[in-house]
Amino acid sequence: MVKVTSRTRDGAHLRAHLDYISRNGQLELEGSDGAVVAGKREVAELARDWATAAEADTHRRANSPVSLSVVLSMPAGTNEIALRDAARAFAIETFADQHDYVFTLHTDTPRPHVHLSVCARGRDGERLNPKKADLETWRQTFAQALRDRGVEAEATPRRARGITRKAERAPLRKIRERHEAGLGEPAQVRRSAYHEAAKAAFGAGAERPVWESCIVARQASVRGLYLAQVKVLGRSADPADQALGAKVEAFVRSMPAPDSQRLALARELRAASERVRGGQDRDRSR
């Protein structure tokens, strides 16, 4: 996965982000020239250098980002060294000609991932502002870098794999994790999400939101496109085509059912309700 997770807007914001990805200077950051940034002092100097350069840019708008934060992640079990080396190769090919950057590998979560912070202003003065097409190119480049290092990877869109539920945004995930650790209140958007999920879990005859119906229709369309190719391949006289058709059909059958955060939270609420009801039944039977 290649994802732009955030943009820093000033020196303080950039310093906080670099402190986070370097674990307050405990992890080394590798730069675009191969140099290593190590320790809180060097991290602070890097943040100051990038922020000073941004402030000196007379063409920069007040809210233009100082840096872009990119995460390169892979499933649990992926070779961490291969991931780091692939991330380095990706960064060199994608940014080294124009943009300074630093990156570091995190292995403290089930999914190993690399945090890549890229200076938004290029050496020629052009600013980094990736569009959808750029992100697709980045995914293809990263996937190739992984394959070059023996890691199976395909840069297929989420919906082409039958996955309809979007990943939780990083800021919301951090707020949720702080709340679950007893260190703060849940985000307002999370409260609203649970309110809507409660309707789906316990509201008899609750109507499906329009956007959720669109998700179902989109996945049905994707399945239909695959199955149409299955029929074409099945009519081929070539055994290899027929075998490929069988594999595609099996892939379609293995696709998960359409899902969303609302439905996932509804399942969570129903499961919690059943646990409470089960506990009450046991108490009454004593």
Number of domains: 2
Secondary-structure class: alpha+beta
Helix content bin: 40-55%
Report the total helices.
9
CATH class type of the largest domain: Alpha Beta
- List SSEs in N-to-C order: EHEEHEHEEHHHHHH
Basic shape: globular
Describe this structure as you would to a colleague.
With about 290 residues, this protein is α+β, with helices and mostly antiparallel strands. It folds into 2 domains: about 1-155, BirA Bifunctional Protein, domain 2 (2-Layer Sandwich), CATH 3.30.930.30; about 170-285, no CATH class. The chain is built from 9 helices and 6 strands. Helix 1 packs antiparallel against helix 2 and helix 3 crosses helix 4 (about 130-150). It is globular. The mean pLDDT is about 85.
Q: Which features would summarize this protein structure in a list?
A:
single chain, 286 residues, BirA Bifunctional Protein, domain 2, 2 domains, 6 strands, 53% helix, globular
Can you lay out the helices and strands and say which pair or pack?
Elements: E1 2-8, H1 11-21, E2 29-31, E3 36-37, H2 39-55, E4 67-73, H3 80-95, E5 101-106, E6 113-119, H4 132-148, H5 170-180, H6 188-202, H7 210-234, H8 239-254, H9 261-285
Antiparallel strand pairs: 1-4, 2-3, 2-5, 4-6, 5-6
Quick synopsis:
The chain has 286 residues and is of the alpha+beta class. Helix content is 53%, strand content 11%.
